[in-house]
Structures are given as C-alpha cells and as structure tokens.
C-alpha cells in the first residue's frame, strides 16, 4: 500500500518526541522529555467552575459549530494582550488555532513549495520540523550562542541562499536550548528580513514564563513591514489539554491562513474557546502566570543545582531565564541517543530528548534537552541523581 | 506578499460554506445553510455533569498533553461501536481526530501528489473539496441517482483515468444530496477498488441518523483487501463543539496518518476526549441517538411537506432516509446563487447553500442544499413559506 503514498510521505517518519511521549506513560520511568507543564499549576478549580457555568447557561452555543476563525470574544482578548505587549493588534488580526503547532503546519502550507528554504536556529524545535517536512522544504540552520541566533551568520545565509521563504525563530527561551534572543539581534533580524524580502515566523509559547532578566519585545512588535507571523499558545500559561493557540499576521496572510484552517479542521473547539474566553474575563491570568513563574524558577534552580552536584564536571548545563527546558551539552563523541537506550532508560529509568533530532541539517549527537516542568521536586532529584551516577561511569 | 505564497494556494479560495456561516450569525436571517445539528438535542445536562466530574477528580491528566493518537479508552469505545456495526476493529485501528474534517486533510496529504486523481460522487461534500484542494488533485466526478453513485459510470471512469488514488464516497445520506448507496452498489465499489487497485475514503458522519429504511453495511465492513479508510464523527451524534472524530484504516495507513496528525496539531483536546470517553461509559448513547432520529424525521417531514405546499410544482425535492439535508433541484436555467443574493436573502431573509460549489468539475447552477436540523418548526415553516412565495414569482 505504501506505493500509493504521496512523495511528501518520504519526509514523514517517526520522531523522537513521539517515542518519548510513550515512555511518559510508564510510571517507573521519570521522563524529562515532553514539554509537559506542571499539572499542579493548572487552574483546575477555576476551570471546573467555568465549564460548569458554560454548560449550564450556554450549552446550545458552546456545543455547536461556530465561525472558523474562532470566537470573536477570544480573538479580542488575545488582541488586547498582544497590544499590551507592544504589538498593536485587533481582534481581526487574530486567528484561533488548535494549539500553536497547527500554526506551524498552516504557515508551511501557505508558503512552502518543495525545495523552498526555511532558515532556522540550529538546533530548533523538533515539532516545527515535523510540521514543515510534509511541504518538502530545504533547511538552512544558523548557529546560536548565548544571545540566540548569530545575526552575522544569518546575513551570510540569506546572502548565499536562494528561495528562502521565511526565518523560523523562537525568541524567548528557545526550544530546545533555553536561550533568548538579545534586543539588538531582534532588531537586526527584522532589518535582514526587510533587506532580503523574507517573512519571519515567530513562535512564542514560553515568552510569558520569564522568571528572571528583562523582557524583550516580540519580533511582531518590532516589525516594520508586516513580515512577522506570530504564534502564541495557551498550553503553557493555562493548560495544554484545551488545545488552543493563535496566529496573528498581516491581513493578506491571515485571510489565507483562515481558509487553510477551515480546510484542515473546520474550527477549534467551541466549548474550549468559550471556556477560555470566560476564564480570561473572570480571572486574572497575569496573576496566575506570575505564580507559575516562581514555581518554574525554583524547579530550574533545583535541576541545575542537582545536575551540578551529580553530573560529571565536563557537562556544562545552560541556564535559561524562563520557559521549561534546559539544554545539556555532553562531551564530543558522547552519543545521547545510544546512551539513553543502553543506560539511561534501562539502568536509571530516566528519559530525556536526545538532541540529535533538533538539528535540521548536520545532526549532532552529544546533546540532550531536559524539561524541569513535569516532575515533583523529589522525583526530579532522585532521577537526576540516578542518571548522574551512571553518567559518571561512562564519561 | 502574495508572491510568497506556495503554488497550492491558488487552489485555496473563499468558499460558499464560509460565507454562509456568516449569515448564520445574523438573527434576522433563517439559514438552512450549515449542517448545524439541532442544539436542543445536545445532551447538555449529562455533559455538564461529566465535565464537572472530570475537572473535579481528574484535572491533572485531563488538562495535560497525552498521546497523539488519542486516549486509549476512547479509541477502544469507538472500536467496539465499529465492530458492533460489522467492521471488526481494535482500539489500535482507530486514530482520534479533531473532527472528521481533519481526516479529509490528512488522507489527502497521505495520498495525493499534484495531478493525482480523486474520484468523487457528483455532487460531493464541499468541505472535502476544500480539504483536498491544497494537495492539488484533479477530480473525476461520477454521476449519482437515487441509489447513489452509478457504479457503471465509476467503472468507466476507473478504466479511463490514470493516477486515481482513491474513491471518496459518503454512503449514507450523502452530503449534499441526502441519497444513500444501495447494498449492491456498495459491494460493487469494493470489487472495483480491488480490480483497479485504488483506495476508498468512506466518510460516514450521518450513518447513525437513519430514521427510515434498512441500515446498510459500511464499506469498511465489506472491505476484503484493507482498502477502506473510514471516517467517523461525534459532531452529529453528540455535539460539534467538542470537535472529535476518528479514522480507522489498515495499520500501514493508520501509522502514517498518526504521524501526520502529530505534525498537524500534536493531538486532540485531552479534556474533550476524556469527557466523551466518560460520557460513553456512563450514558446510553444509542438511546440518545434513537431519540434524535425521531426529531430529525419529524423535521424532514415538516420541511418536505412545507416545500410541497409552498414551492413551485416544478421543484421536486429529494426525500432522504436520514441525515440532516435535502437537495432541491430547480428547473434548468435557474441560478440558485444569483437567486439567493438577489431575492432569497434580501426579500425572504432565507439562506441555503447554492449547489454549484458541490460540483467538483463541471459546475451546475440549478441546485441548492437545505438543512432541516437547525431551526425551530415555526421558524422553518415561516421561512420556507416566505421563500416559496418569492420562488413562485420567479419560476
């Protein structure tokens, strides 16, 4: 039957994230793999009240179909939040998505012919690569340092590469590295996009989870020529299980994305959109986010101090100022995928995401991404201590 | 900016359904357009109890990420229902989707290279065409009669057409015609698919809403060579607002569809999947569906008798045995799109779906689809009476 598959399916292969989500279901394994938020932070009491109220008073509309672009009230709430963060946005500039992941799929559909080039950070979000791949792009991956994407390398890439359609960038607490883009570089990326006439896809699910350092403006707010397509998400600031995100872009782009959304799945869940709108009207989500920041800061601190204590001295872990991940560079020659299969899983009962899948072009094997958001403090310390002991046997 | 768009976007244009959903929001217009179920039939009390319970006792898992294929319990419940309907199905054979519409998008991605041919009924579901179009297929549309797709015409089409990848068929209460496929023809379609080595995409959202006549087996249950990809939906039997559907197919196909689902939007809503699973465990959905059937039968009868009384005698409306739609053929030369814009909307304050958009190849202007599911009895009679008066002035 595979002889029937379209050519694009050659680019659709099982991913490390998918395999790792399976380990997340095994209670004997501590998974630092998926970007699961801390479930104890979900506003469950408030959401229980909201869903009960919505289904008691508004079930006929909340359970029905609605407009494919999403509920106007939710689009307006998001526009207000984006405007307050510096990017003047109207409700009409916002399209509700089934999670920000859907935006990656729809933007690739909108822009990519087979062979067109997407410029990414190196490494970049694996979920973006699997969303882009069915459109058969080529990738140009630009090196990063502790201030994010190297803009001189970006300029050289844009100068030397034909058919670049867009630059994909996660400016805040990048996935997988945890690094944030400096203000100077944000401005330079906008200049370069203008100069080389390419679009920018800004993926911003973690931005509000900054627990230290100074917040930087979004690329959308620095945009001078309507070149930035901005993706946001409720998964990290509210709950992933409602599957709600959004895209904001210039009208000509948003209009086509709306048509692609209608074609892809008609609309997002009316019930979940109604409930999240009501949540934003009723409760103070900024206070909720503020409380989350303190928890994640403590979890990051605990992960880094435990790694510093128990991991081999050669392993210099990065220190993110927000978000859910840290990025662990092992010594050259260490293969984090092989080590996980041979030692971390069977001996330490620990899972992480081997870094190799995050490199779009030349893959590097000596990295791993660790999430500090999804375990209790005790489980985190126990698991990292077990893993450290085994790492010390092999490094 | 449109110079940046991918070639496929030439096939992504505003659709009649999208425009009509907008009229559905104008309270002065009675819309027979969208396939909105009767909101009074939603099991709102039961769903309110379920969501309250889920968010009280299981919020940490119901609001979290889960496996991309969907909750195992929900997959098992669907497999049991499909098996009871004659197609032996395991939980592993089922992938949960964000509505059956998503299945149309994913199956086209799986199978269609630009220029490949999809065989459809003529006319066929507009939402399927807009889902397929971004993959740049060609269409071969096979004529129908009161027993559904003409299988001799199908055979001639398969014999005379290269690159056919699949036959898209809605066997029960077809959208837009309301016609069902006879048992003999179902068997013949399976034979022809085997003979010409093509797949079948069976879209089955209305099947359980049969209120008269004898239920026919699904194509999936008649399948002899694992060629049928079956789409089902909770939108019509439970509520569209939860956005849950499913696809069942051979393992090799389902495995790739699972990867495409992960790439497209990570997973369906954990909260909605948890609630629907609990609903199926707690309540008797068959009793619920049975009650719905009586309501829709009465609505169909009221629509047909009102049309017979008030529409011109030349208009011979079809009589569906289930589902939500009827199909109205106007005399040759009548343009249902122009009439709606010039007369039905401004004078009668009535919307329907002009039939032209449902024809994949050679478009015909003298048809319209009317849904009888979304209005009160009084509103239906008043609106059809108004429309009939104006039709009589023009036919």
From TrEMBL, chains A, B:
SUPFAM superfamilies: PLP-dependent transferases (SSF53383). The keyword Secreted does not apply. Gene3D superfamilies: Aspartate Aminotransferase, domain 1, Type I PLP-dependent aspartate aminotransferase-like (Major domain). The keyword Transferase applies. GO terms for biological process: alpha-amino acid metabolic process. It comes from the Bacteria. Residues 56-387 form the Aminotransferase class I/classII large domain. Keywords: Aminotransferase, Pyridoxal phosphate, Transferase. Its cofactor is pyridoxal 5'-phosphate. GO terms for molecular function: pyridoxal phosphate binding; transaminase activity. InterPro entries: Aminotransferase_I/II_large, Class-I_PLP-dep_aminotransf, PyrdxlP-dep_Trfase, PyrdxlP-dep_Trfase_major, PyrdxlP-dep_Trfase_small. Belongs to the class-I pyridoxal-phosphate-dependent aminotransferase family. PANTHER family: AMINOTRANSFERASE, KYNURENINE_ALPHA-AMINOADIPATE AMINOTRANSFERASE, MITOCHONDRIAL. Homodimer. This is Aminotransferase class I and II. It comes from Brevibacterium antiquum.
